[in-house]
Structures are given as C-alpha cells and as structure tokens.
Amino acid sequence: MSSQEGLSEENCPLVTVIIASYNHAPYIEASILSVLKQSYPHIELLVIDDGSTDDSVQRILRLQKEYGFDFRQQQNIGLSRTLNGAIERASGGLIVPFGSDDIMLPQRIEQQVTYIKDKPEVGICAANIDLIDAHGQLYPEKQQKHRYLPFRRLNFEDLFLDLKPGPMAATLMFRREALLRVGCFDPSIRLEDLYITLKITQAGYYIDILDEVLALYRKHESNTYKNLPFMVENVLKTYERFSDHPAYGQVKTQFLNSMFLKASSRNKPLARALLRDIPIQAWTRKTVRGLLRLMVPTH
C-alpha cells in the first residue's frame, strides 16, 4: 500500500479502506496487514477503535508505528456511526468498510477497482469468499459454499426478494457517490450491510458480484449472525423500511420462517415468540421442521 507520483485518479482511483475495530484483538493485526499488503498502490487506510476493552489498541498502535496509517480511538458509538464518521473524512472515491476479523487476499482491491472504475451504473462491487476458522485455517472444501458462485448482477428486486445469492459483506466496495446519495448508514439499524445494499439498489444502482474469491471470512464464537435475537430485531427493522413494497409481507414471513427453524434448536423461547408472528397460512416446510425440533426437550 503506497501513494505513488504520477497516478491518474481516472486510471488508479483512490480507495479508502475503513476498519472499525471492537474487541477483535486476536484478529485485528491480520486484518490490517492484509490491507497493507494489497497489490493496488493507491489506498488510504483509516482504522478506528470503537471503545475496545481488550488489547486491540496496543496491537494497532504497534502496527501504526511501523506503517503510519491513520488511527483514531473513541468511546463506543456503534459500527454505523463509526463508518459514517470515517466516510465524512475519507478522501477516496471508492469506499471499502472491512471487518476487523477478516482478511483480504492480495489482489482484492486491484481486481475490484479494475472492474468497477468504468461502470458508473455499479454502486457496489463484491466477490466470493472462502471461510476460515478462528485460527485462520480454511474450512474443508465441502463447506466452502461461497467459493464457486457465478458472476451475478443484482438490482433491488433480486436482493429484496432473494432471487440471487447476495453480496458477501467481507467483499463490499462502494462508490462514495452512491453512499452519499442514500445518506450513508442508518445508526438506528445495527446490521449495516443489509440495509445499505438495499438502499443503494433501491436508488437505481447495481451490485455486481465477481466470480472470484477475494476475501477470507472468519467464523468464530462472536460472529454477528450467531446472535439470533440481534439478527431478528435488525433484519425486521431493515425490511420495515421497505414496507411499501408489494412483496414486503412475503419477504418478512420468509425470513421469520428461516429464523424460526434456526432458533428452534438454539433458542427455544425466541422460536416460540417467532412462531406467534407467522400466520398459519404462511407456514412452510421450514416451519414444520422447526416445530418438530421445538418438541425435542433441551438437555
């Protein structure tokens, strides 16, 4: 990562990578180093620690002393507010929020810039991912469900109705103008990636997803998707913002059925609460499978 003389903004646009860190001490160094080791030469790296209580700050400071990237510390204000603040001071026309527990492959930024730079209709460029465990080891081939997905272009309908596989958060690259057009992230919705991708496609932009693996997504005990009550609250809140869509009811019940099935074995009180919100006429095979799981006693 470097800033080189003679670079044309047209041919080599500045990319701002934003890493918002919160209690990811075991992973933060690998995340930052993966940005610093990108093949693309025109990157601005902004790292913000959002009130971590582990030793994340000390680890980041050691790397900052060596590499000299922009690092700021703050009291915890949440991811969406942190991202919005970083976007305000970002210099790049392309913005990459990146998880402090994930890893970019070395060609990631270069390949996405090459693809998106002459396609103004594309507001977001994404790619495929490989899964790694908490120790950075790849999951077995049979579990790499996002490795071989084909190229796809998504509009709002594709995303909202789940007609095509959606973008992986660890690979999102945004046009700054697209983010600004929709007012950036909504601090009241803490599941930021679903909301922002829906808003940007609703505004008329496309999401193009490359058929190459460009990032490693780390699965560990504190992944957001494992917090089922959090997911239910924030996905429903997100969908509610689009409640004027004719298929809103269908999208909502489809999500409730999926979450009911997951909760039926992991969080039975949540599962019972979700079941009350699913009309009988909207029950699916997932509902029935969840009911059977719900009947199995918890040991």
UniProtKB/TrEMBL annotation:
Domain Glycosyltransferase 2-like span(s) in chain numbering: 16-179
Q: Do the record's keywords include Cell inner membrane? A: yes
Keyword hit for Cell inner membrane: yes
Keyword vocabulary terms for this entry: Cell inner membrane, Cell membrane, Membrane, Transferase
What Pfam families does this protein's entry cite? Glycos_transf_2
Q: Which GO terms describe its molecular function?
A: transferase activity
Q: What is this protein called?
A: Glycosyl transferase family protein
What is the species listed in this Swiss-Prot or TrEMBL entry?
Answer: Pseudomonas luteola
Highest lineage ranks of the organism?
Bacteria, Pseudomonadati, Pseudomonadota, Gammaproteobacteria, Pseudomonadales
Report which gene this protein is encoded by: spsA
